Amino acid sequence: MAWGCALCLALAGGALLALLVQLLRWLRADGDLTLLWAERWGKKPEHELRGKVVWVTGASSGIGEELAYQLAKLGALLAISARREDELQRVKKKCLQISSLSESDILVLRLDLTDRSSHEAATNSVLKHFGKIDVLVNNGGRSQRSLFVDTNLDVYNAIIELNYLGTISLTKYVLNHMIQRKKGKIVTVSSVMGIMGAPLATGYCASKHALQGFFNSLRTELTDYPEISIIQICPGPVQSQIIQNVFTENLAKSIENSGDQSHKMPTDRCARLTLVSVANDVKEAWISDHPYLAVCYLWQYAPTWAWWLMNRMGKKRIQNFKSGIDADASYSRKKK
User: Fold this and answer.
1) 237: domain range?
2) Catalytic residue among 173, 204, 225, 331
3) Is residue 23 a part of any domain in this protein?
4) Is 288 a residue whose pLDDT tops 50?
5) Among 65, 109, 166, 301, which one is least packed by beta carbons within 10 Å?
6) How many domains does the chain contain in total?
7) How many whole angstroms separate alpha carbon 227 and alpha carbon 209?
8) Does 56 fall in a domain?
9) What is the domain-level CATH number for residue 75?
10) Residues 6+ apart with CB under 8 A from 112
């Protein structure tokens, strides 16, 4: 009997210790635990993506630009797209400087996601140049900083046209090619705002929720093609130019002060975790520091608590915005 009690105590102690270790990992995490497990024990992007043809939209700045640099270093063949061809040429030049890629290994392809009539021709241009598309990274899009009561409805139309309809339009043409090959990866950079709701971003949240619903549904339509992966990346606040290019109350107005961005996740860390997700076919990856990472878990498992917390965080977010500082400055961890 005493031996049995000792064994039960040892098992309970071991379980408690394991729970404590997981809690400590979670408190220090900058991604969901599935993603961080894949980073530690899973497939490496260096092995999985070398020699693959990867098409990155929104590649002229921010996360897309950093993805291009990291993919170039890995030895992936690149098609990079955005509206600003001069910026794409700058990105290509740096990719060539930091990698062993040759001029023909990187295709610069100007692309406007809102011009849906051009998407088939753009897809054919990539296929003509490389002969295949292994990975499409849907990264193009714009965020929002305005209150609903102050915002013209044509802003919402523009957000949906760019972030949602433009993305699924391009996906349609690339997916047809992947179905013919019976393999490929469709990677969409969504946002934690596709999981939760937050003030100053009603239209942006709506577009990202639409992407989440669309790609979760599309995944279920592709069960006959097990080697076609649908991967959704949900970053939180990241150091990038996204704030400088946000939609505001009307289409003609730009944001006056983007504020200090240094407290947010470094862009290179977000890009690295994105590539880990791609290499390991993580269906949905949350890439964020706390408190947004914690809110993702709450929204998933305890939505009533998430609503309560976001109401309080949201009030401070609006105050920050009206004061001319970054909306998320009050509760993001300062990067050293």
Assistant:
1) 29-292
2) 204
3) no
4) yes
5) 301
6) 1
7) 25
8) yes
9) 3.40.50.720
10) 83, 118
